[in-house]
Amino acid sequence: VKLAISEHGPIAGFSFEMLGVDSGCNSEGGKTAANSTLNHKTLVAIVGTTCSTALSEAMWIWNNAHIVFISPSASMDALSYPGLETFHRVIFTDAVNPSGESSADPNAEAFQLFQTEFETAFGRECCQPYAAEAYDAAMILMHAIEAVAGIDGDGSLVIPLQALAQTVRDT
Length: 171
Fold this sequence. Notes:
two-stranded antiparallel ribbon; globular; 5 strands; mainly alpha; three-stranded parallel sheet
């Protein structure tokens, strides 16, 4: 996610900020983490959670707050509930990919480019599981934010959350 933020850059002079929260990969932790993110008044979108169990609780909190989120790795089939307007994922579900492993092909040219950029940017070996998926999720969100954002009369960046959710869904 940090690499995606670095590569994308600001929108109309407004920078993206990464907020890391640990859900503990359990439902109660997901609930706690989701509620804690809502305390940040500038929160617009989320890359996460990485764990299906944590997302099973967090998703309802974020959806009710109209916060768009894309999970890079939550693959549990049951997460695809009708009526969730803000939930997205970039990984295949368990029904399509029963192993639950990253679907990024380490031999693909795009992955190798990502790996090289990661290692250059951070000076360490890439990659954590689902790093490429998290990068994709962050880029989808930032491009969607850029597409719907505007500047109001006070010079503030305004991001209509319903439009953001629809733009991500249309991606």
